């Protein structure tokens, strides 16, 4: 009786893709069979260069202030060790930032540069977040909410006042947002603006309720409070930071 011949099992599509992805991340790992070496090398180079270019674009200012050799080393290690697999390309910068934060010793970027990287991911968030549309109309009892694209972040450093040219060890609070014309903005926030925006970043509220609270705190003796509050709320609504809720909601 002749023994049956066996044929080698074919590599499944999932295994092939996993092997290809591992090789692209780390070319020292074996490549899947069936791809010409020259074509594989071109594909690997394109994928890795595109990812590096995307990260350099998203972190265009912080990368300029970082040690170039360390920056390139972190990008390469990120591909190999962190294995970014998000289906959303815009998630990758935040993953790279988290990876950079996890490094220690000589692989650790300075805290000021990590802070600026956080700021640049906030700019990307402002550019891509889905926001409800609004005509900007509101009254004293309209519920006002924080727009999804806006972020108010406290840093131990100040890089905004130098127009991102340098990093100073001075605490700052930075607002990043996208206006109703889809333009992205940022600025440092302090004083009464900080008080108002911190309030709205944590909860919904109405002009009437905030005014009553402020009048109770001051004994209701100053009409200037109402003028200031109305002008500031209206300004932040027009800027696109606050959203007047209505029954007809669309998104952009």
Major sheet size, sense and barrel closure = 3 strands, antiparallel
Number of strands: 5
CATH fold assignment of the largest domain: Outer Surface Protein A, domain 3
C-alpha geometry: elongated
Helical amount among residues, as a percent range?
A: 40-55%
* SS-based class: mainly alpha
Q: How would you describe this structure to a colleague?
A:
By secondary structure, the chain is mainly alpha-helical. The protein has 2 domains: 16-109, DNA polymerase, domain 1; 131-244, Alpha-Beta Complex (Outer Surface Protein A, domain 3). It is 49% helix and 9% strand. The protein has 9 helices and 5 strands; from the N terminus they run H-H-H-H-H-H-E-E-E-E-H-H-H-E. It has helices spanning 13-25, 37-58, 62-65, 68-82, 92-102, 111-128, 191-202, 207-218, 224-239; strands at residues 144-146, 151-155, 172-178, 184-188, 242-244. It has a 3-stranded antiparallel sheet, with helices on both faces. Strands 1-5 form a two-stranded antiparallel ribbon. A hairpin with a 5-residue loop joins strand 3 (172-178) and strand 4 (184-188). The termini are far apart. Pfam families: DUF2063, NGO1945_C. InterPro entries: DUF2063 (IPR018640), DUF2063_N_sf (IPR044922), NGO1945-like_C (IPR054098). Residues 148-236 form the NGO1945-like C-terminal domain. This is DUF2063 domain-containing protein.
């Amino acid at each position: 009786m002749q023994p049956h011949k066996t044929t080698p099992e074919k590599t499944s599509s999932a295994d092939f893709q996993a092997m290809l992805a591992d090789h692209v991340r780390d070319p020292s790992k074996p490549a899947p069979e069936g791809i010409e070496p020259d074509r594989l090398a071109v594909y690997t180079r394109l994928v890795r260069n595109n990812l590096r270019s995307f990260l350099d674009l998203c972190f265009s200012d912080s990368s300029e202030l970082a040690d170039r050799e360390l920056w390139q080393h972190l990008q390469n290690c990120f591909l190999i060790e962190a294995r970014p697999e998000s289906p959303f390309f815009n998630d990758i910068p935040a993953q790279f930032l988290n990876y950079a934060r996890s490094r220690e010793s000589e692989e650790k970027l300075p805290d000021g540069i990590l802070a600026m990287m956080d700021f640049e991911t906030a700019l990307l968030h402002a550019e891509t977040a889905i926001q409800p549309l609004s005509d900007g109309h509101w009254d004293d009892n309209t519920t006002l909410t924080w727009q999804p694209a806006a972020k108010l972040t406290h840093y131990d450093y100040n890089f905004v006042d130098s127009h991102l040219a340098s990093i100073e060890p001075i605490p700052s609070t930075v607002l990043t947002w996208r206006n109703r014309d889809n333009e992205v903005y940022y600025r440092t926030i302090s004083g009464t603006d900080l008080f108002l925006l911190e309030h709205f970043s944590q909860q919904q509220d109405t002009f009437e309720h905030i005014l009553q609270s402020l009048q109770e705190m001051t004994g209701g003796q100053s009409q200037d409070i109402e003028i200031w509050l109305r002008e500031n709320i209206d300004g932040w609504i027009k800027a696109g930071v606050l959203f007047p809720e209505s029954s007809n909601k669309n998104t952009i």
